[in-house]
Amino acid sequence: MIxxxxxxxxxxxxxxLAFGAQAQQTQLxxxxxxxxxxxxxxxxxxxxxxxxxxxxxxxxxxxxxxxHLSKAQCWLDVSFHEYTRNDRSxxxxxxxxxxxxxIVGMEQGVEPLPTDTPLVNNAARVREDLWKxxxxxxGTPGFVCxxxxxxxxxxxxxxxxxxxxxxxxxxxxxYIQIAEDWVSDAESLARTCGVAPAGLAAAAPVEPVLTxxxxxxxxxxxxxxxxxxxxxxxxxxxxxxxxxGLVLTRVELVxxxxxxxxxxxxxxxxxxxxxxxxxxxxxxxxxxxxxVIEYTFKGDSEQVQTCEGVKPGxxxxxxxxxxxxxxxxxxxQPQAGAR
Length: 339
Description:
OmpA-like, membrane, Outer membrane protein OmpA, CATH 3.30.1330.60, 52% helix, signal, disordered N terminus, single chain, OmpA-like_sf
């Protein structure tokens, strides 16, 4: 082990202390004090000043799509969003602090900056499948084009987890849908990332695999039992094939069920298979060749949302809907002559 000179250790300690102090410099008024024009004006001024620091970093040459600049902006956005919705929890302050931590690091030229995404205000970690899809993009050649979408999608998952803790799935759902859009955008940007910005090495092409989840109502498996917004998501991914000049080569379908009939239960196995078959027929009706479609089913063995602590009843059934899914993976390759 190599020892550093004491004066270097002291300098590092002072820098760390300075970093922490500056990261905490914007303090919102306590919720109970947000009742006067003066208090609200002071908080809004703090938000405006933080936005100005982000703009200054961009003016100084840091691109808008940079992962850390994007993440600082998105933390600021969700903080301000919840502040204006009169969120009385610690979320607005803690999200704002995360934004400022990144801002300070960028201002001071800290390298490397952290890429973790804290679950501020003890937010629930919802939709583990989306977390994994974002994580899979970090470190890939296509990340250079997808970094803004990844950063904001990760923040929106924390936003959703905070809403889930406060008001359960019904209030978390809009932000999860935003995160789903971000991950689809991120994967698309990574796939089509052929040329890096000036000064960076060219990114190698990423294997084109488009992903969507088709969601079903509780204990149902027919085409009329599919949530409309998940059909929209599937159609969006099918539309990307033409937009990105791709030819579909293989489709993987994986059927799932939620846990309410009991893990490993034969009933859930059969239900997950029926759902996969329904989506197979749905794709065929949209012109997908039956010969490229394959499916498997896993019953309730892979839950992406646990909904711990939610009482049995309609709220629990709604909370568990991400588990009542058919995963759709569209494997493709560029059309002959496509760039």
